Automatic annotation (TrEMBL), chain A:
Pfam families assigned to the protein according to its UniProt record, in alphabetical order: TPP_enzyme_C
Protein keywords: Oxidoreductase
Gene3D superfamilies: 3.40.50.970
Domain Thiamine pyrophosphate enzyme TPP-binding: 57-201
Top-level taxon: Bacteria
InterPro entries attached to this UniProt entry: 2-oxoacid:Fd_oxidoreductase, THDP-binding, TPP_enzyme_TPP-bd
Protein name: 2-oxoacid:ferredoxin oxidoreductase subunit beta
UniProtKB/TrEMBL annotation, chain B:
Record key words, sorted: Oxidoreductase
Transmembrane segment boundaries: none
Name by which UniProt lists this protein: 2-oxoacid:acceptor oxidoreductase subunit alpha
UniProt cross-references to InterPro entries, sorted A to Z: 2-oxoacid/accept_OxRdtase_asu, PFOR_II, Pyruvate:ferred/Flavod_OxRd, Pyrv/ketoisovalerate_OxRed_cat, Pyrv_Fd/Flavodoxin_OxRdtase_N, Pyrv_flavodox_OxRed_cen, THDP-binding, Transketo_C/PFOR_II
Residue stretches making up the Pyruvate:ferredoxin oxidoreductase core domain: 524-589
The keyword Cytoplasm belongs to this UniProt entry's keyword annotation: no
PANTHER family linked: 2-OXOGLUTARATE OXIDOREDUCTASE SUBUNIT KORA, PYRUVATE-FLAVODOXIN OXIDOREDUCTASE-RELATED
CDD domains xrefs: TPP_PYR_PFOR_IOR-alpha_like
Record domain Pyruvate/ketoisovalerate oxidoreductase catalytic: where: 34-222
Organism: Benzoatithermus flavus
Length: 335, 628
């Protein structure tokens, strides 16, 4: 109802600030995808707020011509929750990196998700600390040599999507920064989902962790190394769409099965059901050499925090504070 | 004027219908934490308030929810000081102790006034309970109680006899013990039982047999006093205290705080979003406010202290009044985010219900040792406004003041209370809310010439609600350019912005009252300067000194940062200055550094408020030194 009458172009969502990420940083591509998604959604800049913590990704709000709040390290989901408490009608996007949202701010992320606050949470995962100059992050893979782990990281990495599902998120998706068709689509779906939506974006840090996702996102390998999820469609991948995923017969889990001439169903390939939380967990857990799941892993709306709050809201509004103060045994001292 | 009789001394006996006239009395109820002592105290408070006495109360409960029954660390106590004159404190020493078990007797005895009355439940003194209390011998027979007037009453048996007819289990019958004891004390002090009976009937509306049993116990205890003619147990009469005419109720500090925040938000024309994380003794505020949803209060229990303050900041950014509350350790966790509110120049009210520190310290005991944390405790030059409430009912006005200053100066305001203020109660003249004019918040809506850090003559930046067309802007914790509000690392600009933030908070001094004297006048030979919950004991001690003809003034600070504009001149006018504090000397350091005055500190950190006697001794010592 408050949407502008004429749709704004992606460039209209760019602020007048000079973008200061390293040349070649994956964040540029994500910024482009977000501006495109905002345009496609017809987002009203005046009613849109971007909230961030600290880190390279957290500079994002300065570059979008909406309201923006650049917070402190890890706390963006909490600040965003407060904004939604005050004004549920605002459209609030949370931006943060893997260190910001999974390490120092991990607690706030899981609680925003389990409360199901109506936020779009974009987690830029580059598996490294960039702004502080290249220390290992909670998603850095084992053995990675970084400025803080010269002999290789010995801390096991965590999976953002698995964590989100474990925290009770009702919308979990994954995309790669360079996927300029898929990423805006996912962002739009995240926006249309009522409740907390987590989008993990695999993002290349060209300075401290360049090529971290080459085995997944490289142009020449992506068809074999990723599986694109589409609700109701068979879980197939490969250049020739000749492989699929089916349930293992000897235990719980997914396995790769070749697809013959009779098609995926005959090969026992599963169809993606984005409302199935168990399938979502299995897809989220896929790591090379299995294909990495990209797209919407899980989308099964439940009442958002805002809806639950509205349901509890008292029917009338009392304004008689003076009467409230007298709602206790009182006595009169005569004059 | 009633004669100044005391129980212990029983000077100036005046018989009023067979009752001894008393000027004031201190009663402590003590028992096991499962004995309903707090509830008993609350009922006695209500009855005493309705009788027109001035009063102060304080609950003293263990940190453990249900410590092992009968142990000393499981003792829960409730103290009330009431009288025919203005009562300022909870009383240094109880005149009457009601002890429902040996552990309660052991814990409270050292505080009792010599000659005081001990009502003990003789039925609870068996070998087992004595052992649990860590008593080698029965204090009733080993001389321990010789300095007191002991009234052994078999409260256990009396309660059972009174409640047998109700058909309740023995266990349930014995849970009425506290009302039996209460009935006896009601008789001692001529209290009306009817409001308590009504309260019991309402509380146990769905279990009338429990209401009946408690009422029977209350009546039986009362009847015992009336008929038993126990020589050690006189009946007393306490005249109503002279009080300002009006409608009164009792209020605890944090109830008053909740009401004050709500009235402040109303006067500012704002919705209140209260965000906190459970912590003793601040949690009571969350509980009070959660009940006020019908008044539009939003409460949010966050996942941790940091999330609580950040959500409050988010709420303020979005145009509501963000409020958070905690105690010392939680405030420490919020510190970085308070800096964010300083940098983004948003209104924020932070309540710090101080408790014994450092670290976890003494969660249920009172202290005022967070003043440094409030005034100085952040990274960077990071000034905020700091206020302190002086009494339970003062929490109302100071909460409203915190809202006013936060909203009108776009700054975080920390309001200091403490464990004592949070839980203590006193009579409260219900204020005329309309007598204080509204102070509506102003939101910028005009895009013409706007930038987010454009300052007015008070150096205050505009507040803009997201959702306002044409004013989209970005703010954050990174330094901003003075002229445009964009990110700036320019060295000269940082100096200018740091100066502006500092000056802005100092200019709040233009919007607060000048400092006066609670008692005495500028130029007094001695000034006792206090802040926070030491108000009561200081007021009484100074009153007593002045009654003896000494030239002593009482100055009590409610605005701790910025300090009132005239405070330096006022302090310079006194011959001597002593600053009693429940810390190692935080305000005295602040005053000495700000004004170069030779103020002396008086420190107490036992978890208990100053006694009047301690302050009288300090005043006497200063006056003595003055003469020397």
């Amino acid at each position: 109802m408050n949407a502008p009458t004429c749709r704004l172009e992606p460039k209209d969502y760019a602020s007048d600030q000079e973008v200061r990420w390293c040349p070649g940083c994956g964040d540029y591509a994500i910024l482009r995808a977000v501006q495109k998604a905002l345009s496609n959604l017809g987002a009203d800049p005046a009613r849109t707020v971007f909230v961030s913590g600290i880190g390279c990704a957290a500079r994002f709000p300065y570059y979008v011509r909406t309201y923006g709040f650049h917070g402190i390290h890890g706390r963006a989901p909490a600040i965003a929750t407060g904004i939604k408490l005050a004004n549920p009608a605002l459209d609030v996007w949370v931006i943060g990196g893997d260190g910001d949202m999974l390490s120092i701010g991990g607690n706030h992320l899981i609680h925003a998700l389990r409360r199901n606050v109506d936020l779009q949470i974009l987690l830029f995962n580059n598996e490294i600390y960039g702004l502080t100059k290249g220390q290992c992050s909670p998603t850095t893979r084992l053995g990675t040599r970084t400025s803080s782990t010269p002999a290789g990281s010995i801390d096991g990495p965590l999976s953002a999507c698995r964590l989100a599902l474990g925290a009770g998120a009702r919308f979990v998706a994954r995309a790669v920064d360079t996927q300029q068709k898929l990423l805006p689509e996912i962002l739009e779906r995240a926006k249309l989902h009522r409740g907390a939506a987590l989008v993990e974006i695999l993002q290349n840090c060209i300075v401290y962790n360049d090529g971290a996702f080459d085995d997944v996102a490289g142009k020449e390998v992506e068809a074999e190394a990723q599986i694109r999820l589409a609700h109701g469609e068979p879980l197939v991948f490969g250049k020739a769409k000749d492989k699929g995923l089916r349930l293992r017969v000897d235990g719980l889990g997914l396995e790769i099965v070749p697809i013959g001439a009779d098609g995926p169903d005959a090969a026992g390939v599963l169809r993606h059901d984005q409302t199935d939380p168990v399938l979502a967990q299995m897809l989220a857990a896929l790591e090379p050499p299995m294909p990495v799941a990209v797209g919407i892993l899980y989308d099964d709306p439940a009442p958002s925090y805002e809806m639950r709050r509205a349901q509890q809201a008292p029917a009338g509004r009392r304004t008689d504070l003076g009467a409230l103060l007298r709602q206790a045994p009182t006595w009169v001292v005569p004059g | 004027m009633a004669a100044a009789a005391t129980i212990a001394g029983e000077r100036n006996r005046v018989a009023t219908a067979g009752r001894l006239e008393l000027d004031s009395a201190v009663v402590r109820f003590a028992g096991d934490s499962g004995d309903g002592i707090q509830l008993t105290g609350a009922q006695f408070t209500q009855a005493t308030a309705l009788a027109g006495n001035s009063l102060e109360t304080f609950p003293d409960f263990p940190a453990e929810i249900r410590a092992p029954v009968g142990t000393t660390f499981g003792v829960s106590a409730f103290q009330i000081h009431f009288g025919a004159r203005r009562i300022w404190t909870i009383g240094d020493h109880p005149d009457v102790l009601v002890a429902l078990n040996p552990a309660a007797l052991k814990v409270s005895l050292e505080d009792l006034k010599p000659g005081g009355i001990v009502i003990l439940d003789a039925g609870s003194f068996d070998e087992r309970s004595l052992k649990k209390a860590g008593l080698a011998a029965d204090p009733r027979f080993d001389g321990t109680l010789d300095p007191y007037r002991v009234v052994p009453v078999d409260i256990t048996a009396g309660t059972r006899a009174a409640t047998k007819h109700t058909g309740l289990s023995v266990r349930e019958q014995l849970r009425c013990k506290n009302f039996y004891a209460l009935g006896l004390v009601y008789w001692m002090f001529e209290r009306d039982r009817a409001p308590t009976v009504r309260w019991l009937e309402q509380r146990f509306a769905d279990r009338p047999e429990l209401a009946a049993a408690n009422i029977a116990a209350l009546d039986a205890g009362h009847a015992l006093g009336e008929t038993a003619e126990i020589p050690q147990l006189p009946a007393f009469h306490v005249e109503p205290a002279p009080m300002v005419p009006g409608i009164y109720r009792t209020v605890t500090g944090h109830e008053a705080l909740a009401f004050g925040l709500l009235d402040g938000a109303r006067k500012a024309g704002l919705e209140m979003v209260f965000c906190s994380y459970p912590i003793t003794p601040a949690s009571a505020l969350l509980h009070h406010l959660a009940k006020l949803r019908t008044f539009g209060v939003t409460t949010f229990q966050a996942e941790d202290e940091i999330a609580a303050v950040c959500a409050a900041i988010g709420a303020s950014y979005a145009g509501s009044l963000g409020v958070t509350a905690s105690s010392g350790p939680g405030i420490a966790l919020k510190t970085e985010a308070i800096g964010l509110a300083v940098a983004t120049e948003l209104p924020l009210v932070i309540v710090d219900a101080q408790r014994g520190g450092p670290s976890t310290g003494l969660p249920t005991k009172t202290e005022q040792s967070d003043l440094y944390q409030a005034v100085f405790g952040r990274n960077g030059d990071c000034p905020i406004v700091v206020l302190a409430a002086a009494t339970p009912s003062d929490c109302f006005a100071m909460a409203r003041e915190a809202v006013r200053l936060a909203v009108h100066h776009m700054t975080p305001v920390m309001l200091l209370t403490d464990g004592f203020l949070a839980n203590a109660s006193e009579p409260w003249l219900i204020p005329d809310l309309e007598a204080t004019p509204p102070f509506p918040a102003r939101f910028r809506t005009d895009p013409e010439g706007f930038h987010p850090y454009l300052r007015d003559e008070r150096l205050v930046r505009p507040w803009v609600k997201p959702g306002t067309p044409g004013l989209e802007h970005r703010i954050g914790g990174i330094e901003k350019d003075y002229a445009s509000g964009n990110i700036s690392y320019d060295p000269v600009n940082h100096q200018r912005m740091t100066d502006a933030r500092w000056e802005k908070v100092l200019k709040v001094a233009d919007a607060i009252p000048l400092q006066g004297c609670e008692q005495g006048a500028p130029g007094a030979a001695l000034a006792v300067v206090g802040w926070g919950s030491t108000y009561g004991p200081i007021a009484r001690a100074v009153l007593n000194a002045r009654a003896r003809g000494h030239d002593v003034a009482h100055v009590h600070l409610r605005h701790l940062w910025p300090l009132p504009r005239n405070l330096g001149d006022l302090l310079q006018s006194f011959g001597r200055i002593v600053v009693p504090e429940m810390n190692k000397g935080q305000l005295v350091t602040l005053l000495r550094s700000e004004y170069l005055v030779p103020a002396k500190g008086l420190s107490k950190v036992t978890g208990k408020p100053f006694t009047i006697a301690e302050l009288e001794a300090a005043i006497a010592a200063e006056l003595e030194a003055d003469r020397a």
